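Appendix C reproduces, verbatim, an entry submitted by the partner laboratory led by Prof. M.T., so that reviewers can inspect both the input and the predicted structure.
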Amino acid sequence: MNGGLRAAGRDELEEIGRLYHAVWQETQAPLQPPGVAADRDEAFFIERVRRFPVPPLAAYFEGRLLGFAAWAENTLGQLYVAPEGRKLGLGRALLLASEHAIWAGGFDRARLLCLVGNRDARAFYERCGWRHEADIVEEAETRSGPVPVACWEMVKDLKM
């Protein structure tokens, strides 16, 4: 990987929110219940990034922001890589760094939710040592209230 990972500064959160929106529209919106994508514009994602409990981890390649990851406690909540950043190792680097940060936070098991139907993401996580734990229904946040979505709960025992 010819780039770097680092904790995002406050001045980068808007750019991360724009990336989050664009990649979410491509990869997640088609798997969501009707109406969820319509309620999630770019401003929704920028505000969401600003409310993350810890600064997201930003991935750069040749000076361009191409991905990010964010977590809270032992849950990886976001891992998004722009199309031009895929196949560069950014996703794997973000995932490994997130796992390490979760472990450093005192957790020996990490979890994430993957939308049912997002087979490429699930296969990626499984290649990286994650396993399917359960099928669950999670509530997706929208401005008009929560909407139920089907998810695969994935887990990984962390041994650093």
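The chain has a mean pLDDT of 93. Additional entries are available on request from the coordinating office.
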